[in-house]
Amino acid sequence: EGKALLLNEDCSSSTIAYFINGVPPYVIMTSSRIIECQGLPLISGQNCDPYATVSLVGPARSDQRKTKVKKKTSNPQFEETFFFEVTRSSSYAKKSHFQVEEEDIEKLELKVDLWNNENLAQDVFLGETRVPVKVLRDDHIHKAWYLLQPKGNGSKSKSDDLGSLRLRLTYIEDTVLPSACYTPLCNLLLKSPDVKPISASAAHILGDICRERYEAVLPTVRLLLHHNRFVPFVSAVAALELENTQEANTIFRGNSLATRCIDDMMKIVGKNYLAVTLKPVIDEICESNKTCEIDPNKLKEGDNVEVNKENLQGYVQKVFSSITQSSSSCPPLMCDVFRSLRHLACKRFPGDPHVQYSAVSSFVFLRFFAVAVLSPHTFQLRSHHPDPEISRTLTLISKTIQTLGSWGSLSKKLSSFKETYMYDFFKSFQEDKCIEKVKKFLDEISSNVSKESMFIMGEVQKRAQGRKRLGKRNFKKRWLRVTNRELSYHKHKGKEALCIINVKNIKAVEKLDESAFNRKNMFQVVHSEKPLYVQAGNCVEASEWLEVLGQVSRCNEGRLSTFHPSNYTSGAWQCCKSPSNNEPGCKPCTTTVLANLQLDIDCDRETERIFSLLSSNDTKLQNMEDACASMAVYQGPQREQEDYSKFTIQEPKETFQTLKQLRNIMEELQRQHNIRNDTTAQYGTEFSQQERPLCVQEKDERYTLTSRHHESTTAVTALEQEPE
C-alpha cells in the first residue's frame, strides 16, 4: 500500500521524503510513559529502591532505557517517557525502499522490568510486563494498570504479590513533506557552527529550550554528522562551556549540550570501534562464567577470594590492553573531536599539565568504554542483558576501567577508594606503567604529535612541476608515498625523496578533468606551492589516493572551499578561462567523508524531528524572544526572571534574529503540513481501528482509552502531563 512504517524514539514526526502513488507516506512512532507502581514487594522487610528498565525487544534488537531510582518506597512515582525506533530492514538501499515489513512489527514488544537498586550488590528483579507492539496499533493512546509478572512468565498466576504498574502508551501515525520543504530549516541549522557567538545559533537554541529532554540532541547530531559539520559545532559549544568552568578537575563533568552531543556522536560513530575492541573479551567473560566477586560481604560459601581476585585481574588486564592498544581503530571523527577538546582545555587552563588528558579520558573512558562494558547489550555487544553474576563481574570491570583511565590525568589515587577490598585489589596494578599506557593511548587518539604511520604507497605518473607545455615528456614515473605527516615522491621505491610536502600544507585534493592533460584517472594536490598533478594506474587506485589524502588533510587550517578542475596554461585557467593565476576556484571542493564512517541518515526525517521539537516548545521560544528583547532594551543588571535565567543569551540581537528566522521557517513548514492534511485525510479511514483493551483497565473515566488517527500534525501527545 505504499506505507513506510517506523517506531520513533522521540515525540517528533519521523520523516521519509518521498511519495508513493501520490499518497503521503505513513511513519509510526510509539512512546512508553512509566507513570507509577503500587504494592511492590518488600526487600528484607523494608521498602525497596525501585527503578524500571524499558526495552523494545525483537528477534534482532534489544534497545533499553532506564528510569531514575526512587528511594525507599513500594509505590514509586516515575513519570518518565521513553521513545523507540524500528531498525531499518537489511534490504534498505535508498529512500524508495525504506519500508519496515509487517512481520517485523508483529515480532516486536515493549518490555518493562522493575528492579531494586542494590548499589554495589547485584540488583534484585521485582517483576515485568510485556506489551506487543502489534496490539498498540488498535489503541493509539492507551493508559492502563498492569499486574507485574515473574520473569519470562506470561501468565498471571501467582503474581498478585509482585505489585502493579501503570503505563501510558502512545501510538501515532504521521505523514511527512517533500525534501524541498525542509531545506530552509536544514540550512539554518547547518550554519550554526559559523554563528558568533555560538549561543545565538539555531542548533544551540534547540539544545537550550530542550535541555531537559536528552533525546532532543540526537537529530541535530545526526544532521551535523551527515553534512560534516559536527566537529566545528561541538568545538564551539565546548569552548562556551569551558568559559564557565572554573576548575580544571571539573572539566566536562556535567550533563551539558557539549557532553550530550559527544555522547550521541560516540554511540553512532563508535559502534564498530566497540565491536572490534571489546566484543571478543566481553564474549569470553560472558561465556566462561568465572566468579570474580572480591567483596568479602558478598562471597558465597566455598568461594576463594584470591582466586576470584585473580580472575578479575585477568579480565581487567584484557579489557585494559584491548582499549589502550586500539588507537589505530579509533574512528577519525572521534579523534578530531578529542583533538579539539584537548586543544580547548589546554588553552583554558594553560598552567595545568594534566587537563589535556582529563578532557579526553572523561569521554573515551568514563562515557564510552566503561559504559559499554557495564551494559554490553545496549551497544549491541551482546544480544541480551547478562545474568546477575556476569553483570556483577562487568560492574567491577567497568569501575576498574574508569579508575585506570583517570590515572592518565593523575586525578585519582589509590587512596580515593572507600572500599578496602578495592584498595587492596588496585595494589596489584603497577600504577606507573598503567599511567604510561593511558597517556600513550590518549596521545595517539587526540594529539597532533604522534609516531609516523604509513597509509598508502605506489607507482604513479607525475607531471613535472612548473612545466607550461603539454606532452608525454612532462610526465614521469614516480613512487608516491603518503604518511600521516608527509606526502613524498621518489624516483624509485626505497630511493631518497625528490620532493616532500608536509601534510599540514595540503589545501585541497580533487579530481582533474580528463581534458586538462588528455589523460584519465588524474587528481591534483593543491598545497602552498604549485599544484601537484598525478595520474593513477586506474580509477580504483585514483579513488584510493583521493580518499587517503583527503583523510590526512581533512582538519588542515586554510583548506580551500573551491578549486579549478583543470590546469592553468597559455595565460588562463582552461576550466573557467580566468586569466589570473590566483583566481579562486570555479567549482566547490568535495566534502571529505570520513573513512570507516558509513552513516545511514535521512536528513529530511531528522529535520522533521527538529521541527516537531521546536513546535512543541513554542512557548519557550516565545519566552526566549521576550528575554532577548528585554535584554536589548534594558542595559542595567540582568533581571533574575525564572523563564529567562534558563536560557544562554550572550548577544540578544543576534539570538533574536535567529529566533525570528526560526519562527518564519516554522510557520511555512506548518502551512505545508496543513496543505497536505487534506491529502492524508483521504486515506485516513483505512487506519481507523476499534478500541481493544490490553489489560486491567482503570474504571475512572479520566483514563478511558481512546483511539484516533494522527493526521500529519506535530506529535506532542507523548509528553503531555498526565491529567489528575
Helix fraction, binned, reads 25-40%
Tell me the CATH superfamily of the domain at 249-446.
GTPase Activation - p120gap, domain 1
Summing up helix and strand content along with how strands pair, one would put the structural category as: alpha+beta
Q: If you average the pLDDT, what whole number results?
A: 77
Q: Hey, roughly how much beta strand do the residues contain?
A: 15-25%
CATH-assigned fold name of the domain at 249-446: GTPase Activation - p120GAP, domain 1
CATH architecture of the domain at 249-446: Orthogonal Bundle
Q: Number of DSSP helices?
A: 19
What is the C-alpha radius of gyration, as a whole number of Å?
29 Å
The stretches of 5 or more residues where confidence is low (pLDDT under 50) are 1-27, 87-103, 683-724
Q: What does the main sheet amount to? A: 7 strands, antiparallel
What does this structure look like?
There is one protein chain. This protein has 724 residues and is of the alpha+beta class. Among the domains are: 26-175, Immunoglobulin-like (Sandwich); 249-446, GTPase Activation - p120gap, domain 1 (GTPase Activation - p120GAP, domain 1, Orthogonal Bundle); 454-554 and 556-588, PH-domain like, CATH 2.30.29. 36% of the residues lie in helices and 17% in strands. The protein has 19 helices and 19 strands. It has helices at 102-106, 133-136, 183-190, 202-209, 217-226, 230-243, 257-269, 271-288, 305-324, 332-348, 355-374, 388-407, 420-426, 431-446, 514-517, 539-552, 603-616, 618-633, 652-681, and strands at residues 27-38, 50-58, 61-66, 77-84, 109-116, 124-132, 141-147, 164-174, 454-463, 475-483, 486-490, 497-502, 508-511, 522-526, 532-535, 562-563, 568-569, 572-573, 587-588. Strands 12-11-10-9-15-14-13 form a seven-stranded antiparallel sheet, covered by helices on one side. The chain has a four-stranded antiparallel sheet with strand order 4-1-8-7, with no helix packed on it. A four-stranded antiparallel sheet has the order 3-2-5-6. Helix 9 (305-324) packs across helix 12. It is globular. The two termini are 41 Å apart. Residues 1-27, 87-103 and 683-724 have low confidence and may be disordered.
